Amino acid sequence: MRYIRLYILSLVLTSLLIGCQNNQVNLLGSQDITSVSISASTGFGTTNTEFFVTYSDEISLTFFEQLLAQATKESGSVNMPNPEYDMEVLYMEDENVTYHLWVGDSGHNSTIMKAEDTHTIYTISEDFTLQLIEMIEAKDTMQE
């Protein structure tokens, strides 16, 4: 009986240690989104409010909620070029959060950063990058 308790205790402790090792916690996608607006970025420390697209339909909002939820926090120092896009996310609690966005090429990851936290970046998977490219290009061709 004593060995069973020790075995169970060691399993619990191992699980806790493994859980604590994951410092890549993502807190970006923790709320419901009501709209997402994207503009060409004018650089760090500013938000270009001349948005070329605003998404508020359910399918697009679900996509952006999933994109933010799956983004992986990267460790280490951040040295990024000027962002390509600014993305303003309006949450149901009337909170606006602005992100800087670097869209990777097809088959590559993209990067996102909270505008007020220029020391932390999050990577976006290749699959979400491809969908993001398609969404941005579709809106660009609609404006021409």
From TrEMBL:
<dbReference type="Pfam" id="PF26353">
    <property type="entry name" value="YhfM"/>
</dbReference>
<protein>
    <recommendedName>
        <fullName>YhfM-like domain-containing protein</fullName>
    </recommendedName>
</protein>
<dbReference type="InterPro" id="IPR058780">
    <property type="entry name" value="YhfM-like_dom"/>
</dbReference>
<feature type="domain" description="YhfM-like">
    <location>
        <begin position="47"/>
        <end position="139"/>
    </location>
</feature>
